[in-house]
Write a structure and sequence with these properties.
The radius of gyration is 16 Å and the shape is elongated. The chain has a single domain, classed as Four Helix Bundle (Hemerythrin (Met), subunit A) (Up-down Bundle), CATH 1.20.120. It starts with a helix and ends with a helix. It has 5 helices and no strands. By secondary structure, it is mostly helical. α1 packs antiparallel against α5 and α2 packs parallel to α5.
Length: 157
C-alpha cells in the first residue's frame, strides 16, 4: 500500500468516525425533551454543539485528504460549509445538498452562539426546532457523505 493510499484510507476512516459522532449526537439531542428545561435543555444544546463540531471536523478532513489549503479567517466556518455544497470536478462530489445548506448554517450559528453566550437562556422551542433541523440535515446529507467515504476506501482497495 502506498503512502497516498494509506492516507486516503486513514482520512476515510476518520471521516466515517466523525459522521458516526454526528449521528450519535443527533440521537442524544432527540433523546430528551428540551421543554423540561434545566439539564434537559443543556443536554440537547450540547448534543447539537457536538454534532456540529463533528460535522465541521469531517469537512476539514475531506479538504485535507484532497490537499486543499487550510482555511483561516473569521468566516472560514461558513466558507467550508458553502464549498461543501459544491462539487470540485475531478476531486469530490458535493457533500452537502443545497436544500439543507440553510439548516447546517443555522446549526453552526447556534453553535457559535452557545459557545459565546455564557449566561444565555436555552429556549426549548428553539432547541426543538434546531433538533428537527439537525435530523433533516443529517438524513439528507448522509448519502453523499457515506458515498464519498466509500470512494476514499474503494480507491485504496
Amino acid at each position: 500500500m502506498s503512502p497516498v493510499d494509506a492516507r486516503a484510507l486513514l482520512f476515510g476512516s476518520e471521516a466515517e468516525r466523525d459522521w458516526q459522532m454526528v449521528e450519535a449526537n443527533l440521537q442524544k439531542a432527540q433523546s430528551v425533551d428540551p421543554a423540561k428545561a434545566g439539564p434537559e435543555s443543556a443536554w440537547v444544546a450540547l448534543a447539537i454543539d457536538h454534532a456540529c463540531e463533528a460535522f465541521e471536523t469531517m469537512l476539514v478532513r475531506f479538504e485535507r485528504s484532497l490537499g486543499l489549503p487550510q482555511r483561516s479567517g473569521a468566516a472560514w466556518h461558513r466558507a467550508i460549509l458553502d464549498e461543501a455544497s459544491r462539487a470540485i470536478p475531478g476531486l469530490r462530489p458535493a457533500l452537502v445538498p443545497v436544500d439543507v445548506l440553510p439548516d447546517w448554517a443555522d446549526l453552526l450559528a447556534f453553535r457559535h452562539f452557545l459557545r459565546h453566550a455564557y449566561s444565555a437562556d436555552l429556549e426549548a422551542p428553539r432547541l426543538a426546532t434546531l433538533t428537527a433541523r439537525l435530523a433533516r440535515a443529517v438524513a439528507v446529507t448522509a448519502p453523499a457523505v457515506r458515498s464519498f467515504v466509500e470512494v476514499l476506501r474503494r480507491d485504496v482497495s
